[in-house]
Design brief:
single chain, 178 residues, alpha/beta, three-stranded mixed sheet, two-stranded antiparallel ribbon
Length: 178
């Protein structure tokens, strides 16, 4: 299917409806943020995760909020939010195994990165550095409402033990409507 968009010159052209654009990714991010709150005050192995009910997306408290790419400061939370929301939805709504949901979510994250005109390789290099650094950190503050499905499905027993030993009360679930 195609959607018609007039270019700057006013002439109409056909653009593939599924083509990823910054405008579409911004819209998707707003929809996700309307349903899930961001929390950055905890230790989250593998950089990010989500609450059991999916209403909170956690990003590790040590993860920088941005990086510099070609002299531009790029906020990184938006890409992690897209990844975590897609992953949680696929697990929760469709019953996918974490590893399958993660692969699909990774493609959604890549699309969000590319929509910002950022080379995936550069973004991924930055993230890999933090995955290693945060993975090596001593856990002291893991929220007790963090969904442990990814760690169980990945058979990461050592990380699960470290996480359980340092769990603290997680943030309250946001109230809906009112």
């Amino acid at each position: 299917m195609y959607e018609k968009h007039p270019p700057h010159g006013g002439r109409r052209q056909h653009v593939a409806e599924w083509l990823i654009s910054k405008r579409m990714m911004d819209h998707a991010l707003r929809a996700i943020r309307a349903r899930a709150r961001l929390e950055r005050g905890y230790d989250i192995p593998y950089l990010a995760g989500y609450s059991v009910d999916g209403s909170i997306i956690f990003i590790d408290r040590h993860m920088p909020k941005s990086f510099v790419y070609r002299k531009r400061r790029i906020p990184t939370d938006r890409f992690l939010i897209v990844h975590e929301a897609v992953e949680k939805a696929l697990i929760q709504l469709l019953g996918l195994h974490y590893l399958h949901a993660h692969q699909i979510a990774l493609h959604a994250e890549q699309a969000a990165v590319r929509a910002e005109e950022i080379e995936w390789h550069d973004y991924d290099d930055f993230m890999q550095d933090y995955i290693k650094a945060i993975g090596d950190e001593r856990l002291t503050r893991v929220p007790d409402n963090l969904d442990l499905t990814p760690y169980r499905d990945f058979h990461d027993a050592a990380t699960l033990r470290r996480m359980r030993a340092t769990m603290v009360p997680g943030p309250a679930v946001p109230k809906r409507g009112g």
